[in-house]
Design a protein that fits this description.
heterodimer, A: TIM Barrel, globular, B: alpha/beta, Rossmann fold, four-stranded parallel sheet, elongated
């Protein structure tokens, strides 16, 4: 089912995310999508995530359509100028892709082709505006289109970023430009998110809180040290750390572990429960743990 | 100021492999301040090349290296030294090297001794900062005289990305300030109104590299 009517309903929205492979073997991605299709309202497909070269978002989205899923095409402005971005938006629509999440994209120096030329001809706000223009039947130069798309446009925000005032100011511009839904950076601290939601309640746009599934205490510490705007509270790190120690001991005793996965599921499900009253939905970022998503959703 | 750095000596010697004699050109302005083509650096290069078996037919400091008419006049004054040289090595910026190549009357290979890096501020001796990228459409009135087009790694005009660290640094490097953080700090307590306005994409025709270039040799 299309995403837009669900955004306009009262339903609690759940989206998930897959990353295309570095190579052509999409079998794992397709398996994950078949598993998640009945459980979620949309599946984001990342666009050369973390600036590490890989198979494209548009082809993957198209193949997800074939599995009966509802793809959300992520489109970054890092790699293509305004000609290519607008052309790809039209191409996406022609391939049956209805939803586009507009982002700037991680800088090439953070990826695996560090010497690549960063394009950034447009920023995310300008991309949303350009896409809205296409929906209205004209390109950025005002030329009339022969057949127009009707893309459902999304944008992102980082609720824990500093300075938050500028994040909100930019979010305001994104909504004014035509964003119909917002997905956020990973949220682990519900209080910080609640404060953010209070500050943006004047913006009438569905916001889906980002959930990155915690895989280990090490991952949590890494994010705290390296991912801007993300704070994993000590309490969650302690839980993951204890689960890791329990699994290690179980392994030494020749017993089956599973504490880390169980704790991870419990944390994610707990976050969703706590976030549910605060926003219109959640956006799951399983980072390879898509097969655990059904258990997370069942535990909510 | 055009900021440049000297190329590796091996690279310079590779350029000059077929030249037994060399005429050296520096620049009185940027390369003098940046210390990549002032009097001392040109003298040092002359010594280095001599130590590598080259004959130096003469040296000259362009006034400045990017001024075509001055360079032509100065080259005429150094005619004999240029006639005697197999090659010309220019210790200036890319504009200076090309100006030298246009100004030299003799059929000589002209080589660049420097890499040209950016337009920069001289913060203090030997320390430079890139603050402007010559976009051709200055909008720093909106951002309290801090240019996000240059100082944001992504050149974002409508506000920061999500990559600003809690310390106000850029996701690209902890040594790099987030331009939007700087803008925010400067605007603290003042109205953010000028930042609320949507900023349209830049016109790339105004950017360096796309300006109409007068064909070489064309007279006014």
């Amino acid at each position: 089912m299309s995403l837009r009517p669900i955004l306009q309903s009262d339903t609690f929205i759940i989206t998930s995310e897959v990353g295309p492979p570095k190579g052509t073997d999409l079998s794992h991605v397709m398996e994950e999508c078949k598993l998640l299709n009945p459980l979620v309202n949309g599946i984001n497909v990342t666009d050369i995530q973390a600036a590490a070269m890989r198979l494209g978002s548009m082809a993957t989205c198209h193949l997800i359509k074939d599995t009966g899923g509802e793809p959300i095409l992520q489109m970054v402005t890092r790699d293509r100028n305004r000609l290519a971005l607008q052309s790809d938006l039209l191409s996406a629509w022609a391939l049956g892709i209805e939803n586009v999440l507009c982002l700037t994209g991680d800088h090439p120096t953070l990826g695996d082709h560090k010497s690549a030329k960063p394009v950034y001809d447009l920023d995310s706000v300008q991309l949303i505006k350009a896409a809205k223009g296409l929906n209205e039947g004209h390109d950025m130069m005002g030329e009339t289109l022969e057949g127009k798309p009707d893309l459902c446009l999304g944008a992102v925000v980082s609720p824990g970023a500093t300075p938050l005032e500028l994040q909100i100011l930019k979010l305001e511009k994104k909504v004014a430009a035509g964003a119909e839904f917002i997905q956020t950076q990973a949220v682990y601290d519900v209080n910080i998110f609640a404060e953010f939601m209070d500050k943006v309640k004047y913006l009438k746009v569905p916001i889906l809180a980002g959930i990155v599934i915690l895989k280990s205490a090490g991952m949590a510490r890494y994010m705290n040290a390296n991912v801007a705007g993300v704070t994993v509270p000590d309490e969650l790190i302690k839980k993951m750390s204890a689960a890791g120690a329990a699994d290690k001991q179980a392994k030494e005793e020749g017993k089956k572990g599973g504490n880390v996965v169980a704790t991870s599921i419990e944390i994610a499900a707990g976050l969703i429960r706590d976030l549910k009253p605060l926003c219109r939905g959640v956006h799951l970022m399983p980072l390879g743990w898509g097969h655990h998503v059904p258990k997370i959703l069942a535990a909510v | 100021m055009t900021i440049s750095e000297q190329k590796a000596l091996e690279k310079i010697l590779e350029y000059l492999k077929d030249a037994a004699s060399v005429f050296l050109v520096g620049c009185s302005d940027c390369a003098t301040v940046v210390k990549t083509g002032g009097e001392p650096e040109v003298a040092q290069m002359a010594e280095t090349l001599k130590a590598n078996g080259k004959t130096i037919t003469g040296t000259m400091i362009g006034e400045p290296g990017c001024h075509l008419l001055n360079m032509k006049r100065q080259f005429r004054e150094h005619k004999a030294e240029l006639d005697a040289a197999d090659a010309v090595l220019v210790m200036s910026c890319g504009t200076g090297t090309q100006t030298a190549a246009m100004a030299v009357e003799q059929e000589k290979p002209v080589w660049a001794a420097n890499n040209t890096l950016y337009l920069g501020q001289v913060e203090r001796m030997g320390h430079f900062r890139e603050l402007c990228s010559a976009c051709g459409d200055c909008t720093i009135d909106r951002t309290f005289a801090i240019c996000p087009v240059t100082r944001c790694a992504k050149g974002l005009q409508n506000g920061p990305c999500g990559g600003t660290t809690a310390e106000g640094k850029c996701e690209v490097s902890p040594d790099r300030d987030c331009a939007w953080y700087l803008i925010y700090e400067r605007m603290k307590g003042k109205s953010l109104e000028s930042l609320r306005e949507y900023v349209a994409p830049k016109d790339a025709r105004l950017r360096p590299g796309l300006f109409p270039v007068t064909p070489e040799g064309e007279k006014k």
